Amino acid sequence: MLRRGLLLASNSGVIKNMAANAPGSRRVVARFVPGERTADAVRAAAELATQGLTSTIDRLGEDVLSADQATATVEAYLSLLQALGEAGLADRSEVSVKLSAVGQALPRGGEFLALHNATLICAKAAEAGTTVTLDMEDHTTTDSTLWILTELRRDFPATGAVLQAQLRRTEGDLRDLSYLGSRIRLCKGAYQEPDSVAFTAREDIDLAYVRCLRRLIGSPAYAMVATHDPRLIEIAGTLASRANRSKESMEYQFLYGVRPDEQRRLVAQGDRVRVYVPYGDEWYGYLVRRMAEKPANLRLFLKSLTSRR
Ligand code: FDA
Question: Which of 11, 156, 165, 168 could cross-link with 122 by S-S, CB 3.0 to 4.6 Å?
């Protein structure tokens, strides 16, 4: 109920304006989204680097409605990659791209447009000395995203994949993708999916995550463990030491602003940790999704809307 209400609120212009203008809520927004401009993202990546954290930067904005909008997103990524290179951050910061933001959902040829646009971003990333990971969206896009990934990996083999443990198909996808050199981010999955294609009960999703972790960590692929769940992080660590995985062959990933103490704890024990940094003017829907995941964040946010400081 709460989650559905919040997801509806993600389309509310009124709440967005309040959030953007109430002084207290600006601070809450800044905790999860460092800013709207390229310079804000680069600054956040630089600050994370000083704490021993790497980053993957996402320009917020999904479901573009025209080829021009898709081109604007590509240009934003190209400027970002240029700026990361110039700031000397390319070895610590990569980018995450949603294919819907570069045209995948457009009728007549959207998939090919997305491949073309993603190729431009991958080429710029390679020139700057870094990589791209393709975010995964709802299940209707999985086949198309994996096809585009395969095409991109012909020229850019380090392009990262994302698999969602909640999808029933994922163990099979992992089997196909877990080869040496393949970078795979495993997450639970952020989209509300039907029972026919996904596990929908929390415990079933967690169990599926553990099964996928076993497969991923037991494989030669580079493992990117993207969860804030303390139990799953512990299980990943245990599986990795049982499999004699080196610390360099995997990383933990967190969203910007979520469990920063845990990020630092893992770094202090020698683990690799990457933070997903979203930026851009389309921050509101992203923020509401974070609220839907964690009621304590929602309380903080609602309180901040009415606070004067
Ligand atoms: P979940 O939300 O189930 O929470 C489990 C436990 O973790 C909680 O009980 C609590 O202990 C702890 N926790 C969670 N949130 C917390 C918070 N804010 N503060 C403190 N503790 C908290 N999804 C997708 O569909 N496609 C994608 O490409 C990506 N990419 C991606 C990258 C990265 C780096 C991350 C971390 C996540 C994604 N996701 C994603 C999102 C992912 O699928 C999922 O929706 C969220 O990470 C929430 O699930 P968790 O595994 O964190 O646990």
Answer: 156
